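Example record used in the benchmark description.
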Amino acid sequence: MKSKIKLKELKFYAYHGVLPQETLVGNNYIINVTLTVPLVKAMFNDNLNDTINYAAVYNIIKQEMAVPSKLLEHVAGRILHSLKHHFPQLIEVKLSVSKLNPPLGGDIYSASVILEETYLAENETG
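Model output (structure tokens):
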């Protein structure tokens, strides 16, 4: 069985960007994250210790979004590293960081960076 937790469209206002105006004015960002994690124990015993606390995931992402960076790649990499550090049971993480209405000189909804990292071979039985 492959089990995942998905947090969709986490919204933040942050100050990431290469242009000076981006770090002064800020922008809206949307984060999507899918965590592959063993959930068999939690399915049967209803114990928060056997899963990943969604609020903790949100707070980790919120902390990383509060640190200004020039590149979305850097923000996404920090989030990925921090999630793995706090949740060593993670098997895989898929993360997208999207900047809404980026200053590219045209009409564009968002620019995104998507990272996927696999840490272990999945083993839900052990």
